[in-house]
Amino acid sequence: MSKFHYFILTSLFILLCGYVFVDSRIHGKLSDSPVEQDLIVSEGDGVNLIASKMEKSGLITNHLWLEIYLWVKNKESQVVAGTYTLRPNMSIPEIVDVMTTGKGKKEDQSITVIEGWNDKQIGEYLSEKGILTKEDFLNEVSSPDKYRPYFSFLQDLPKGRTLEGYLFPDTYNVIKGKTTAEQLVYKMLLNFDTKITDSLREDVQKSGHTLDEIVSMASVVEKEVPQENDRKIVAGIFWDRIKNGQPLQSCATISYILGVVKNQYSFEDTRIDSPYNTYLNKGLPFGPIGNPGFSAIKATAYPQKTDYVYFLSDPKTGETVYSRTLDEHDRNRAAHGL
Predict the structure, then answer these.
(1) Structural domains counted in the chain
(2) Would residue 13 count as lying in a domain?
(3) How many CB atoms lie within 10 A of CB 54?
């Protein structure tokens, strides 16, 4: 066999292997997961942007394979804008068929989950909107084991906990009467996973705290003060209390236990027996007392060190007032009617 023939055969073999490899990536599936999630394709979205969205959402292994398939099939300009329900166990040809024919397009509506809402509040909101029953939603968030295989941040979640704290507050597109609790919870967890960047996770690890501890503290800080600057200071105060072996004494945890918001809680209120009671128990509550937004998580991960020891919120203005000594704190309480 001449060198030329050998070169031709070798080239053909390499091309064949390359074709088989690319074809397997295009017709293969990312996983066997049947969990549905929504992909929004807006007017003007280019193929690269659409493919990147799908890769980040965990629907395809690599954006390149989708782009190649669209180019080979000459369908780059045929993708129809809209919201599509897709699954990781769909192949790229199946996904493209849905998005270019528009047959997977659906009519949706937006819901907005407020930062700091706990699971019960989210359930009540979904029930009022006619999206899901409160019971269905609470049952779903009480099954963290179902989602552990898909999200690394749930691997070390203690037994007895729900997904509270990890249902990221944001605006979501849903379909009344069709969106299931599983679909919505998956989207919220995926959103959390996306928002908590690798750099933030690395910094959390360096801080000596676990991500779960950061989320639990952030849920308390979220409820205690509204402004990001104040959150950083209050987070610093709370971390110092834990470091010094003092109880957090957070009224937000009492509010969570009682389900009632008060300007001032009684001594009897602070004696209620609960693993979430930070007056009776030192350290963090058993778990998050709500679902914190990114501002509270960031403030808790990067607290501001001060010499403040106490703080209070003016019931009239919402202003956070700080003090360095107990005497100063008592005077501030009296001055603000607390």
Answers:
(1) 3
(2) no
(3) 24
